């Protein structure tokens, strides 16, 4: 199997965690006789510094020519004074648009070895297995008009969705639910927002095509509490861009750290893979970052772009073993404890376990 | 002290929990020789049924003539097919606009007696004391244009804020932080939204006027996780309408039930008081609802409209005593346990403890 992977390591801890993911992918290639090639390109703050723009054309070209794009993280406090369209994050939003993937899959599974780290009780998090399907190309993130007029002091953004945008994402949610436990929870704020009413009606309209999937609707405010009170009740959670951003981050509470969460964005020209965590500039370059989110993201590359399910499972198993053996970066060390491995040591451990 | 209180009990469990809050207010009046009068008026689904509109003019008149408005809950599944502007919730949004209060104060305090109910570990929730200041009259809730065009299948909403809207709410946040632990956490999505950039810049501009308050900014996605991981780190949390809706509900995880959370909306012509929970149509009329959110809301009436701090504290103390004695409605009974009191019994117990 050949895979040409574009590597957009980005800012902060992006490069160090991505390096570990690449290391693991190389091991998988070697064991399985696969041919994975890696092409680096700039995005985010490092691209602004080097090229004056958060997403240089060269990066777009490299990404569009690849079979999969592996992204690290984007964001740097240095650019906080810039307007959203000039910031590192604009590069992330633009690459998402160029690649065209609209369904951002964010699995949240409880790791038994980490159950002591979660602020939630172990009996609440045990066996949680949720798959968020976050719409990634619509809503407030991209809607126009948008502006902050410093003269008048008025700012506005637009939340906008079309029915086809909702449909294509909902179909992915239903199909994934069919392959999992057959439940789809659609989250919105339909008691206030017209956009949410479109979402709810569209999902209800499609539902009869998937008679084996049980659909429920939740309001985003209630969902924020249900997700913590009874996370095991959820299977596939389908929602629009901003709600998906908030709820999938919140689900990091279940593993105890955002640093454990991977994601894959499918449905476009080229799939985009990125850990859910951010660039964490405060710990960047110190070997403190948790590479497991990136490594689990590499597993998603194999699963969704390489059709290498067995290899993906092997990575996930290796991660579990390393955790069971007690290896910890700071974010998953537990209350009052400190890391006993560095970023690259953690990557090596997973590599060896493979 | 005289207080003329408009009572808008609304839908679902609204009437039963409000009745208990009124009972408690009457006891306070009797003990303290105060003169509280109560005027009922319709809102929400019951108003649609009786008068064809979720907010009749009569209700607006009663509310505007009052010293304080005590609201129960609004929302009824019967009206789910209606567009947002015709639904029960439209009555709630409209009364908020008529009264003009823009700062919705939502305290979240951990009740020691309930610590076993939270899915969070007791050591995480212990002594939590957060005050959300949610902007209540702006953002996506009221922004125009807004529409769901069923012909074209497109829907849009507008998030909009002006600098004065942010300023007036921020000043309240800072002033409350001064009286509390001196920390203000402003929550936004400034890495993507222009509206959020306005919020962040405005709060930073005002901050020097409150040198004794420490300001920090958090992104809403990160905040959803911090709020569960380290809730004790937060004092006043200031944010826009939708983010405040989601985060304050999420904070219900800390007490283990939304049914415990009160709110007060200040800054307008007449203050509006409402528990954070919804109308819970599934348990309405069965004596299962938890009246403590409404009763604690009554305490906020005394505090913010009556300047009766001592009486407010007395109610809060009575609630703590009743909880310590083990009295529970279903929502706070704890995993696998059931209620040992009804809604009105709970109200009576607080009344007696007073
Ligand atoms: C960095 C930011 C623009 C991004 C988002 O909000 O989509 C991040 O929070 C994420 O969830 O991938
Ligand atoms: C019922 C609904 C319109 C309302 C809101 O979103 O403001 C409720 O969730 C609340 O928080 O008071």
TrEMBL record, chains A, B:
EC category name: oxidoreductase
EC number of this enzyme: 1.1.1.85
Binding-site residues for NAD(+), renumbered to this chain: 278-290
Domain Isopropylmalate dehydrogenase-like: 4-350
Pathways per UniProt: Amino-acid biosynthesis; L-leucine biosynthesis; L-leucine from 3-methyl-2-oxobutanoate: step 3/4
One Pfam family this sequence matches: Iso_dh
Record keywords: Amino-acid biosynthesis, Branched-chain amino acid biosynthesis, Cytoplasm, Leucine biosynthesis, Magnesium, Manganese, Metal-binding, NAD, Oxidoreductase
Catalysed reactions, as listed in the record: (2R,3S)-3-isopropylmalate + NAD(+) = 4-methyl-2-oxopentanoate + CO2 + NADH
InterPro entries per the UniProt record, alphabetical: IsoCit/isopropylmalate_DH_CS, IsoPropMal-DH-like_dom, Isopropylmalate_DH
MF terms (GO), sorted A to Z: 3-isopropylmalate dehydrogenase activity
Residues the record marks as site: Important for catalysis: 141, 189
Sequence intervals crossing the membrane: none
Cofactor list: Mg(2+); Mn(2+)
Residues reported to bind substrate: 96, 106, 134, 221
UniProt binding sites for Mg(2+): 221, 245, 249
Keyword Manganese tagged: yes
Similarity annotation: Belongs to the isocitrate and isopropylmalate dehydrogenases family. LeuB type 1 subfamily.
Its biological purpose: Catalyzes the oxidation of 3-carboxy-2-hydroxy-4-methylpentanoate (3-isopropylmalate) to 3-carboxy-4-methyl-2-oxopentanoate. The product decarboxylates to 4-methyl-2 oxopentanoate.
Protein name: 3-isopropylmalate dehydrogenase
Gene: leuB
